[in-house]
Design a protein that fits this description.
The protein is α/β, with parallel strands linked by helices and 234 residues long. It is 42% helix and 16% strand. One of its GO terms (molecular function) is oxidoreductase activity.
Length: 234
């Protein structure tokens, strides 16, 4: 029976790399984005590379609870994924005392609440099935405070706490929970900066780490993966 993976924010960067990696292993895919054209491009390229597999794409803004619920209902009408990757996120730099009004709400809604509501949508079925693997895309910003991190760092610290709690709740149901905590990875958000590319990690390395953690035997789980550039944090 074909396995499936749900990756939020799957059209670019780390999300896209994870889709490609699991696609290579024969997985069907569910994903979403706020941008319909990006979804169309992804769908076309995925089906070209993996003609025997399925991909379900949906335009959705997961910073909104109603959109998370709509998206999860669409996915559940097709399948309960074997793997769930909470990858949707946004980064807006700023200090807590001076960042623009609304930064906190936007990043908490996008980076944390989306994962909370989407995970809740699938846990009952995973628990009944007694299988599944849930990944949360955190950040080293959720481990170490740094200047100009502001609400982004707060959201990622909260995401790590959410994932730790989820791990304890689901371990007796044979459901694995893993937090991915990457450092600077070259994605669209870094385009245009005057920093050598060799200072960044590759999205393919993050995807390979997710696959490796998933691919362990049922007797082991990787709870956290911290990945940093070889030359250190930026």
């Amino acid at each position: 029976m074909t396995k499936s993976i749900l990756v939020t924010g799957g059209t670019k960067g780390i999300g896209r790399a994870i889709i490609d990696r699991f696609g290579e292993e024969g997985f069907d895919v569910f994903t979403c984005s706020r941008h319909a054209k990006d979804l169309e491009t992804l769908e076309k390229e995925f089906l070209s590379r993996f003609p025997g597999q399925k991909i379900f794409v949906t335009e959705a803004d997961l910073s909104r609870k109603d959109e998370v619920q709509r998206f999860s209902s669409l996915v559940k009408s097709q399948a309960i994924p074997d793997v769930l990757v909470n990858n949707t996120g946004i980064f807006l730099p700023g200090a807590i005392h001076s960042e623009p009004e609304g930064n906190f709400e936007m990043m908490m809604q996008t980076n944390l609440f989306s994962a909370y509501y989407l995970t809740r949508a699938f846990t009952s079925e995973m628990m009944e099935r007694k299988s599944g693997h849930i990944f949360s895309m955190g950040s080293i910003a959720g481990l170490t405070a740094y200047a100009n991190g502001g609400s982004y760092a707060i959201s990622k610290w909260a995401m790590l706490g959410f994932t730790k709690c989820l791990r304890q709740e689901l371990k007796d149901y044979n459901i694995k929970v893993t937090s991915i905590l990457p450092g600077a990875t070259y994605t669209a958000s870094w385009e245009g900066v005057e920093i050598p590319l060799e200072r960044f990690m590759k999205v393919e390395d993050i995807a390979a780490s997710v696959w490796s953690a998933y691919n362990l035997s049922p007797y082991s789980v990787v709870e956290e993966i911290v990945i940093r550039p070889q030359l250190g944090d930026l």
